[in-house]
Amino acid sequence: MRRTAALLLAACATLAGAQPKTDWEQREEERSWREGAPRMPAYPKDADLIEFRVSAGSDFRFFVDASSLAVGADGVVRYTLVARSPSGANNVSYEGIRCKTGEYRVYARGHPDGTWAERPSEWRSIEPRTMQRWHQALRREYFCPQNSPIADAAEGIDALRRGGHPNRRYSD
């Protein structure tokens, strides 16, 4: 069944004028990938926040700052995340997701005084069954339909407002 699906995909790609990439070509692309330099966004304002659902098991509310959402030429979807506790305290971070590899990284943490503390983390795998489910939700439901990055910020904002990307994929 998988072989049939792979052959069908290859045939469709050929008919569309695109040649499917070999495993070697895909590995070489990954080896030569370089991350672009992220630009720190302005600190988020409540008026620009769009709430998204993570899971019913969380007391926190999660938001993305629409004005910070960007897709880099490197394929990284960058955004400011606001996680609001039931008491109203905000945890603010500027983050990026690599759709192709299923990884995320944090570039900076926000301070209550409205400033950023830049402390980039390493790229980390997005694990679906961790306490930090917001990365999986953003990747799977909003920013990485079919494991590819959204085309631009407008597409991501639309997905957030709709409650999910129309092309999202449910099987990872």
Structure description:
The protein is about 25% helix and about 25% strand. The chain is of the alpha+beta class and about 170 residues long. Strands 1, 2, 3, 4, 5, 6, 7 and 8 form an eight-stranded antiparallel beta sheet that branches. A hairpin with an 8-residue loop joins strand 1 and strand 2 (about 60-65). The protein is globular, with a radius of gyration of 17 Å. The relative contact order is 0.14.
Query: Helix amount, in percent?
Result: 25-40%
Question: Architecture of the domain at 54-172, CATH level 2?
Answer: Beta Barrel
The 3D shape can be described as globular
* Poorly predicted parts: 1-15
- Characterize the biggest β-sheet: 8 strands, antiparallel
Number of E-type strands: 8
Tell me, rounded to a whole number, the average pLDDT: 84
Structural class: alpha+beta
Straight-line N-to-C gap: 18 Å
Strand content: 15-25%
CATH topology of the domain at 54-172: Lipocalin
Discrete helix count = 4
Provide the gyration radius in Å: 17 Å
CATH class of the domain at 54-172: Mainly Beta
Quaternary structure state of the chains depicted: single chain
